[in-house]
Amino acid sequence: MGTQRKIRNEEYEVLAYPKLNHIRGRIVHIINRNTHVHRALELGLVLEGDATVRVDERIFPVKKGSLFFFNANEPHQIQASSQAGAKVAYLQVASSFCSEYLSCFRNLELQENDLTGTLPAEHLKELTKLMVQALTDYMAEDSDLYALRCVCSVCQLYSRLLTVAPYRQMTEAAYLARNKKMARLSRITEYIDNNYSEKITLEQLAKQEGVTTTYLSHFIHDHLHMTFQEYVSSVRFERALKLLRDTSMCMTDVSVVSGFSDVKYLSRMLENHFGMSAQESCRQLRRETTLQQAEQEQTFASEELGRSWLAAFWREYTNGTQNL
User: Fold this and answer.
1) Using alpha carbons only, what angle is made at residue 50 by residues 48 and 53, rounded to the nearest 5 degrees?
2) Which of 47, 146, 155, 308 is positioned for an S-S bond with 313, CB 3.0–4.6 A?
3) d(CA 30, CA 89)
């Protein structure tokens, strides 16, 4: 199979906080998590395996014991170095966390994502201990003091992080401007995702947003790193792949349902994507798509399993039996 290009450039993830307002901890087995953004601050700790992290255009390696950080609304991706994957612990904190007392969370930006590559060893050791404690408290069984312990642990962690890691706070004007841009981007992508089967024009969207087509064209390219038409086509192609894989529809019907005006255009996209004829692509799509999904897998550990992974990591870390 020929080299596959990325179908969608970014995913805009809406986070839920099932246990505590503004705080979520989770441990994930990752092979590849495609580029995505969300509004939470995210601190990551590699419990096992090696991986590569991409933040916008910056790339850096991580391994067992590495700490890294993503700012709110910052596009990021993590990909394991092998099919064995990597186990990664995440602590996500909403920018509205303790907003009555910590205004800095609202417009906080750490200047470095690769904490292990930039901070002294003694600071990393302290942050790792606080990170493990915060995650342990989050995954503990509920008690009368559960919420208080979690909030205290997160506050301790961030108090130390902001003491040792360089950061800046955006001005109120910059913060509001960024939120306005993200809201506009969310409206645009949601509209396209909901109306891909119909005719969609840049003029339509520009009129809805109250801006010129020139402005909107540059806005989409700057934030999605592709043109308006490329994004629309990528959404349609993604839907077409699902239909070809999961149904017995012929390619002509799939092209109509997916919003393509001409089946020949869908055929060309299949040929470019898979490096083979459209007919061969359709015959092999189920097998190839299964392989592709395996390469993009991320599996969330149950809290019981997550606690065991975290405990095993911490034993090795504190005993110094592994070269972290």
Assistant:
1) 115
2) 47
3) 10
Pairing mode, strands 76-80 and 167-169: unpaired
| CATH code of the domain in which 93 resides | 2.60.120.280
CA torsion, points 93, 95, 98, 100, in degrees to nearest 10?
180
Q: Is 282 among the domain residues?
A: no
Nearest Cα to Cα of residue 266 among 230, 240, 227, 229:
240
CA dihedral 13, 14, 18, 21 (to 10 degrees): 120
Structure confidence by residue, pLDDT tens digits, 141-200: 778 899 999 999 999 999 999 999 998 876 667 667 777 777 788 788 889 988 999 999
State which H helix or E strand residue 195 sits in: helix 172-195
Q: How many CA atoms, within 13 angstroms, populate the side-chain half-sphere of residue 164?
A: 18
Give the residue carrying structure tokens 């890294």. 68
Q: What is the dihedral of CA 290, 292, 298, 299, to 10 degrees?
A: 10
Q: How many domains does the chain have?
A: 2
* CA–CA separation, 118 and 107 (whole Å): 22
Same domain, 98 and 206: no
Q: Is the pTM of this model over 0.85?
A: no
* Domain housing 221: 172-275
Asked whether the beta carbons of 167 and 108 are under 8 A apart, the reply is yes
> Can you tell me the distance from the alpha carbon of 68 to that of 53, in angstroms, rounded to the nearest whole number?
9
